Amino acid sequence: MNPFQAEKHPFNIFFLGAIYASLALFLGLWVFENQAGLVTVFLTALACVPLFYHTMIYEEQKDLKITGEWRILREHSRAFIFFTMLFIGMTTALTVWYVVLPSNLVEKAFSIQMDTINSINNQVSGQFLGTAFQQQLFGQIVLNNIKVMIFSLFFSLLYGSGSIFVLVWNASVISAAFGNFIRTYVSYLLNIMGVSPLSAYFKVVSLSVLRYSLHGIPEVLSYFIAGLAGGILSAAIIRKDFGTKKFEKIMFDFTSLVILAVIVVLISGVIEVYITPVIFQSYHQTILAP
pLDDT class for 206, splitting at 50, 70, 90? Predict the structure, then answer.
């Protein structure tokens, strides 16, 4: 799968991401059982490196051929779409394995991810009460997301395809959050409420998507945009465009992408703090009702 094929058929990348993540998970459990969580992230990222690297080269060439920043951003959007599909494929596969695997394997495969989730939950405790708390939470979330965005940018700049590790890590953490939510609430509906298995899974999966995806997708998109910006700049330096007229055009595109990534981070923060809780709380009781 090369970048041209990926941009032309982005939905195929969904299955590619699912295969990469699934293979990495079982290799991690088989070979490095006690460190499976981190090894899964590493092997998945390693599998994505060729496609990610060649995409950076491909997108950098677009910068040199296309005039007009809006036209360039429109062309870059094709890469954003297939990277998003890659992320969704990895997240979906890991979530499914979290739900269906035995508890002992889940604990080994996602222990480090659950530690991260618990740490985040401990830092952000309480309910969404009062404007002051929402403003404080908004600032905390945005600063944390900007930090991750900067990691994606510099990892791509320094290592070419380095940001893919940050993105796969986020996919694994979100999968653990999805999976834990689904297992917990499905068990509640089956054992306490007496709901049929099909109905229980439908209700809980739809609720989990509502809870995490509304802000999660734009949040991850900002990391992809920042990673693409760093990758394009890295590719330009590798191809020795540094110091030429071409490089000025690359830097302008780089700056535009970074600004766009920051804007998307702010939008995702607004959704996470002010929109998701309202929608989630409104439908929580009705969706989980027997």
Answer: confident
CB 257 within 8 A of CB 225: yes
Q: Whole-number mean pLDDT of the chain?
A: 82
Q: Which of 99, 234, 109, 94 is nearest to 163 (CA)?
A: 234
Task: Summarize the confidence of residues 247-270 as an average pLDDT.
Answer: 88
DSSP string computed for the chain: --HHHHHH-HHHHHHHHHHHHHHHHHHHHHHSGGGHHHHHHHHHHHHHHHHHHHHHHHHHHHHHH--SHHHHHHHHHHHHHHHHHHHHHHHHHHHHHHHHS-HHHHHHHHHHHHHHHHHHHHHS-S---SHHHHHHHHHHHHHHHHHHHHHHHHHHHHHSSTHHHHHHHHHHHHHHHHHHHHHHHHHHIIIII---HHHHHHHHHHHHHHHHHHHHHHHHHHHHHHHHHHHHHHHHHHTT-TTSHHHHHHHHHHHHHHHHHHHHHHHHHHIIIIIHHHHHHHHHHHHT--
130: alpha, beta or left, given left = phi > 0 and alpha = psi -120 to 50? Answer: left
Q: How many residues does the chain have?
A: 290
The two structure tokens encoding residue 260: 């766009």
Model confidence, pTM: 0.84
Q: Tokens representing 10?
A: 């982005």
Q: Write out the DSSP string of 128-153.
A: --SHHHHHHHHHHHHHHHHHHHHHHH
